[in-house]
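To whoever is covering the structure queue this week,

Two jobs came back overnight. Logging them here so there's a record in the thread.

Job A:
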Amino acid sequence: LPATDKAKPKKVSDTVYQLEIPDADKDVTGDYKVVVSDEEGQEAQSSCKLTVKVPALEFTKGLEDQTVDAGTTAILSVEVNSPPKEVKW
């Protein structure tokens, strides 16, 4: 597997290898397999399932009551714990 933005194979030592997946999101959830081979062509393989848990969307800062003077700009603001798919006002 070549290095990409989503997966970076790494050799840690002569016997330890890793597949690093920075900023894992639900798109990288799935089955993974590694196959190693020696000079004589013998192979060994290992597989696993990677599940990325996405936190439930929630407000970290909700709307607050405001009073503004006529003719000024009113700004209503919220903050959430992860980027929402859609925002409706």
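Job B:
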Amino acid sequence: MKAEPIASRLFPQVTAELERRLPQAGEVLVEPGAWIAADTIVARCRREGALRVVDAAAALGIPQSRLERHLRVFVGDSVEPDQVLAANGLAGWRTVRSPVRGRVAQVAAGRIFVQEQAEQYDLVAQLPGQVARVLPSWGVVVRSTVARVLGVWGSGGECAGTLVLRSQKPGEVLQWISIDLACRGKIVVGGQCLDRRVLLRAARFRALGLVVGGLAEHLRLRAQELGLVVLVTDGLGAVPMAAPVFELLRRHAGRHGLLLGGLDGARRDPPALYIPLDGVQSSATPAPRPLAVGDRVRVTGQPHLGATGLVRALHEQENDCQVEVALDDGPPAMVAYRNLERLG
């Protein structure tokens, strides 16, 4: 079996291109080739607000068919937050108020539908670098020198903030007590997350995101429900973070990072963490290639899941390819080629 090309998940220093895209068509504000800062607004649009439903008849204690005679607004009217939409003075004075600024879109089935006011949405570059190309009406592709870690799973949208380390070793399990006010507005980095209280504390103290080597399988839905931006670098379950990945993140603790979680309609890049390396020049992302002797790898299957080491030899057979790996924390092992990924 011939060894197939393998892409790396860890890039300590690389020139990457990242697409920055509006949620809907708008206006691009920069030109191709322009040099931009992380906080540069590269595009903007008017984003339609959400449709809010007010169950007015139930709140007033009246039949749905009688709501119209109690209305204080009409379809098409502009409304302000807390403005009275309907009132009933028959059984004590009751009122229904608008939850948002917007426009009365419809009145039906005893409910008042309020369309939130459209707001300007500014798309920020989040990475310093150069505009590689423009996506007309939609956004740009930013070229930047970064350290990049690709994940195996992610949730949430995206966030940008300072990296803060909350584990001292790659396999250390995050403790809920370590998530505190110092994590507010930060991206928390840890070895493993196996306790739901870690996620609850992160949400409570308004941490921006979480980067871990392993995440307990049953916590995936919880992370999504809490709206946390989460990146899992190595695997679901009790899986330690690969030592080279942990060392890279430890070295860059205190720096700014851009964390991309789950895919959404406006973003097509996979879950990843980007750390800008200001003033550093680097080569482009290398193309996938077969493993070779001397490559640093991580094992992605049992019985050595999560272990790292160096390739010592490749043994290609007709229907299989076995790789001899000098493990960092154990004796040499034979590992199936398909169960390895390159680090760097």
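Note for Job B: DSSP finds four helices and 25 strands in the chain.

Please reply-all if you pick these up so we don't duplicate work.
Q.
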